[in-house]
Amino acid sequence: MNRIIRAAGFTAAAVLGAAYIYGGSGNFGNRSVTVQPKHSVTNKVAVVTGANSGIGLALTESLLNRNCRVYATYRNEECSKTLLEMAKENPQLNLVVADFDTEESLDTAIAQIKKTIGERKVDLLVNNAGYFEKRANKFGALEGPGWSKSFRVNTIAPMLVTQALAPNLDKSDDPKVVFISSRRGSIARNRDEHYEGRIAYVTSKAAANMAFSSISQTKKDWGVVMIHPGAVITNFPSVQPDRISAKESAEGIIGVIESGMKSGSFVDEKGKSIPW
Questions:
Q1: In this structure, is residue 273 part of a structural domain?
Q2: Which end is more exposed in the chain, N or C (fewer Cβ atoms within 10 Å of the end residue's Cβ)?
Q3: Are residues 26 and 115 in the same domain?
Q4: Which residues contact 115 (CB under 8 A, 6 or more apart)?
Q5: DSSP state, 185?
Q6: What is the band of 272 on the pLDDT scale with cuts at 50, 70, 90?
Q7: Is 243 part of a structural domain of the chain?
Q8: What is the pLDDT of residues 119-143, one digit of tens each?
Q9: How many Cα atoms occupy the beta-carbon half-sphere of 147 within 13 Å?
Q10: Which residues, listed in sequence order, are joined to residue 28 by a DSSP beta bridge?
Q11: 1-10 confidence digits (pLDDT tens)
């Protein structure tokens, strides 16, 4: 009998230890034990750009559900009604108007983001705001202004936002910077899968991948990850099959963040490596 009791005690301890190592929950008697992942985003301070719809909105909601204080940017009230309603109901959500379309509005947006956050620490920055310009993607019909805008929104803006918030991120014990990239920013996949007719989009994403890869080497205390969010049902044009919801994508992205992925990695929403 004593041997059985000792064995049962050892088993419970082993289960609890496994839950601690891998993250998860267990039920011991009438008490539920929940252990957060080592890099949990729960109760953190997060910044999400482009939060008015799609992946950004879903990420904002998921982070709020994890009791985070979220600073979320949006372009204008007309396209942000759901986000504005969320802010009315949740005091943890702080909204910032930020338009990255022009050089002037970009400077204003970054200044406003910095002013709103002030000297507070930031644990997680998700550079999600993105842009697809139809008039600057097909060779033979390329237009300079549209291509410039693609780079301003998809490459320059996330870099300058990250730079502006660097002092805030340095105050965190576990700073994480995420760039919502695209597998179409992979040069290897471009050749394998023939990403034709999207020149401005794929070049702006590839350039941002390089930029954030460089940051991961400069800021060695940060966790910097470039994440392809999956084939998501959004307003962005796509002909890919088996598209997932923005909520599924957001949960996958948070899972990758909490997994402690090696800084400088380029992965999808399931943590699978994508070739450069």
A1: no
A2: N
A3: no
A4: none
A5: G
A6: very high
A7: yes
A8: 999 999 999 999 988 777 788 888 8
A9: 15
A10: 31
A11: 444 433 444 3
Phi and psi angles of residue 27, each rounded to the nearest 5 degrees, phi first = -115, 115
Residues 6 and 105 placed together within one structural domain of the fold: no
Single-letter amino acid, residue 58 = A
pLDDT for 11? 40
Domain identity same for 89 and 117? yes
pLDDT confidence band for 190 (50 / 70 / 90): confident
The gap from C-alpha 222 to its chain's centroid, in whole angstroms, comes to 14
Amino acid making up residue 90 = N
Q: Are 105 and 83 in contact (CB under 8 A)?
A: no
100 in the same domain as 13? no
Q: How many domains does the chain have?
A: 2
Which residues, at least 6 apart from 46, have a Cβ–Cβ distance to it below 8 Å?
63, 68, 69, 70, 71, 122, 123, 124, 125, 126
Range of the domain at 129: 39-268
Mean pLDDT on 245-255: 95
Dihedral sign, Cα of residue 96, residue 100, residue 101, residue 104: positive
* Rounded-to-integer distance, Cα 109 and Cα 14, Å: 51
Residues 10 and 125 in one domain: no
Tell me how far apart the alpha carbons of residues 256 and 141 are, in angstroms, rounded to a whole number.
38
Q: Residue 181: its pLDDT value, please?
A: 97
Residues 70 and 184 in one domain: yes
pLDDT in tens, 12-46: 444 334 333 334 444 434 444 455 677 899 999 99
Angle ∠(49,122,157) on CA atoms, nearest 5: 35
Same domain, 91 and 180: yes
